[in-house]
Amino acid sequence: MASFKVAGHFAASLLFGGIVCSAIFMPAVAQEVNPDQILKALSPAVTRGLSVPAEAVTSDADHTFTENLRHHACSLDLDESDHFAELAKERPQIDLNIYFNYNSAAITAKAEPQLKELGKALSDPRLENATILIGAHTDARGSDKYNQKLSERRAEAVRGYLVDKLKIPADNLSTAGYGKRNLKNKADPFAAENRRVQIVNLGPSTAAKR
Q: Who's near 129: CB < 8 A, 6+ residues apart?
């Protein structure tokens, strides 16, 4: 009888331990965002038309900055990305959970469905001429320098996937890495929502309107 009780307690401990380990080590499964949701988020609130109006860019300097992004082959530097962070506050945007290998910019198979949904949205006529900036963010683990470089490589990886696999025009996409500078959840610097990819619609190119 005693042996049975010991075995029962042992089994219960294993079960409880498994539940606890799962809660600690298994990441929460984020809900995938579909193309309609992405389109809605990236559409300007000021219009129900098919394109973002030129008025969304509020100054000549900002307009020039946005237009130059279409010819930016590498990630924005720190000053440029800080400028963009301010500019982006007034632009339609959405945060997506894109899964990468640990401490890596390698896109996982788990991330591909969400990237394909993003590709469908960016191929829609309402966004096909938009200037889109892909901003990657990390949580607070690790040094500033390491996280900055990692976020830049992750943003570039997303851009590369969209261009190479989904045929989104390269000129439409620019990237920025923010490292851990712009935490979404400042109260919990290590929270999962800090590890995100931010997609921002900066408006149509001048060439698209000619």
A: 51, 172, 204, 205, 208
Q: What is the CATH number of the domain that holds 84?
A: 3.30.1330.60
- CA 113 to each of CA 1, 6, 155, 208: distance values in angstroms, whole numbers, following the listed order: 53, 47, 17, 29
Burial of 136 (0-12, 13-18, 19+ CB in 10 A): buried
Q: What is the dihedral of CA 161, 165, 169, 175, to 10 degrees?
A: 0
Backbone angles phi, psi at 94, to 5 degrees: -150, 145
Contacting residues for 49 by C-beta, under 8 A, at least 6 apart: none
- With contact defined as beta carbons under 8 Å apart, do 172 and 122 qualify? yes
Q: Which domain does 155 fall in, by range?
A: 32-209
Give the pLDDT band of residue 112 (cuts 50, 70, 90): very high
Closest to 52 (Cα-Cα) out of 43, 61, 60: 43
Cβ–Cβ contacts within 10 Å for residue 125, how many? 8
Which regions of 14-152 does DSSP assign to beta strands (E)? 93-96, 130-137
- Distance, CA of 193 to CA of 96 (rounded, Å): 9
The pLDDT tens digits of the residues spanning 140-195 come to 999 999 999 999 999 999 999 999 999 999 989 999 999 999 899 999 999 988 99
For residues 102 and 204, state if they share a domain.
yes
What is the distance between the alpha carbons of residues 160 and 169, in angstroms, rounded to a whole number? 11
How many domains, the chain?
2
